[in-house]
Amino acid sequence: MFSNDLVIKILNYIDNNLYKKISIDELAETFHFNKDYIMRLFKRETHFTITNYINSKRIYNSLKSFIYTDLSILNISINYGFYSQEYYCEMFHRIIGVSPSTYYKFINFRSSVSIKDTEIIQTNISRLDYEFRRINTYISNVPPKSTIKVLSIFK
Question: Alpha helix (H) ranges present in 17-151?
């Protein structure tokens, strides 16, 4: 079964505008479809709601900031498209399973994080890795372009 062209376009649009404010209404206007239809189709095809996909992708992309920079959580949240540190921390905890500060300790000082938190972090990051690999496979499963054959009598 091939991937839905509209969903692929929405995924690409989200990925290209990930750090900007993206609304369902904006997607509906951009792609000229009813927002309820877009939300249902996206959920059916990706198993993510649009908002959950955007937040998961932003959080997933922000994880490397804990390794390569010494930015504050506020700066990380702003850099990755969140407009408040509180919302970033709430989404981070919902998606990764621990707070950003616990994740920071896990990355930099593993011995100071409990075994339970370590397992939660590893499980949730593995799940996200799997989900985004699945989405990338979905995007690459494009139906072939149909070629129009011209009958020889019309040449």
Answer: 24-31, 35-46, 50-62, 65-68, 73-79, 85-96, 100-108, 115-140
CA distance 130 to 133: 5
| pTM for the model | 0.87
- Sorting pLDDT into bands at 50, 70 and 90, what band is 68? confident
What is the model's pLDDT at position 71? 87
CA gap 125, 60 in Å, rounded: 8
Q: Are 118 and 110 in contact (CB under 8 A)?
A: yes
| Residue 12 CB contacts under 8 Å (≥ 6 apart), including other chains | 139
State the CATH number of the domain containing residue 79. Answer: 1.10.10.60
Alpha carbons 41 and 35: distance in angstroms, whole number: 10
Helix pair 35-46, 24-31: axis angle to 10 deg = 100
How do residues 11-44 score in pLDDT, each as one tens digit? 999 999 999 999 999 999 999 999 999 999 999 9
Q: How many domains does the chain have?
A: 1
Question: Is pLDDT of 141 > 80?
Answer: yes
The answer to whether position 145 is within a domain reads: no
